């Protein structure tokens, strides 16, 4: 992460220096187009592209970290092992929802992924045979079928 920040900072510094060089070349030429202003503009364009690439890399890193944190929070909330202050508040807000094991969460996640894949590959009636075929793969995980169904009456009962 530090390397990404360093790369972004260096690219920004070079970009700003190139912008200053364009302004200086333009001032020295009296606003006229010269080889020096063209060279400064070309260097500026190159630095701009390098800065954009560094920004894209930094954005990818931030998105990756955000997704990782989100996944960890989801597992923590689902398993009831949320850290200190944030755990009790969400659990207090939803007292009818019982924590589940991380293994069970992973099984349900896989079942959902299989269903999404089936829906993406099949349309209407074509997905029904696919669901039966790979339903076997999703069925052990989709023991989630009765699980969530079993959870709904419990939630309704409270």
Automatic annotation (TrEMBL):
<dbReference type="GO" id="GO:0016592">
    <property type="term" value="C:mediator complex"/>
</dbReference>
<dbReference type="GO" id="GO:0048364">
    <property type="term" value="P:root development"/>
</dbReference>
<feature type="region of interest" description="Disordered">
    <location>
        <begin position="123"/>
        <end position="158"/>
    </location>
</feature>
<dbReference type="GO" id="GO:0009631">
    <property type="term" value="P:cold acclimation"/>
</dbReference>
<dbReference type="GO" id="GO:0010150">
    <property type="term" value="P:leaf senescence"/>
</dbReference>
<dbReference type="GO" id="GO:0006355">
    <property type="term" value="P:regulation of DNA-templated transcription"/>
</dbReference>
<dbReference type="InterPro" id="IPR033244">
    <property type="entry name" value="MED32"/>
</dbReference>
<protein>
    <recommendedName>
        <fullName>Mediator of RNA polymerase II transcription subunit 32</fullName>
    </recommendedName>
</protein>
<feature type="compositionally biased region" description="Gly residues">
    <location>
        <begin position="123"/>
        <end position="136"/>
    </location>
</feature>
